[in-house]
Amino acid sequence: MLPEYKRILYATDLSESARMALRHAISLANCHGAAMTILHVVPDLVELMSGDAGFDIESHFSRAEWETINATATTRAKKKARERVREMTAECATDNPRCPVSGAELKIQTRDPAERLLAEIQTGNYDLVVMGAHGRGAFMDMLLGSVANKVVRLSSVPVLTVRLPVESAAG
Questions:
Q1: pTM (two decimals)
Q2: Which residue has the higher pLDDT, 70 or 15?
């Protein structure tokens, strides 16, 4: 029996590979008559900066200062995500009058992207996850880890990862 996709989770980090993945999510949703949910996760700035800096950056500023910085960044990121989704909807509707993005539920969350995605997969009753992959390579993913890598390994449903096409080196 072939799989049926009725609920597709499209995860976006607003990158170019995520934009390419959207095309695949739309195609699959159209072919299967599936509903789409769009999820964008805004990383927590304190966690992100502390990890990148290699020390607890939170200890250098008051909790109130970090909460203000995080709230401002989160508000801006959510606004940008909504704008990008509107752009994608308009682009999709131009090419396809039955665009599933226009009826998609938009969820914007904060904190760790991989953990939020995995939690959404568990609670959302999805049949498929579609997301971009940056394709840094196996060594870099092993060394640094990646959201796509973690989601592929731990997801309870199939995950389609989409990379940008490799440009040919011929000149």
A1: 0.81
A2: 15
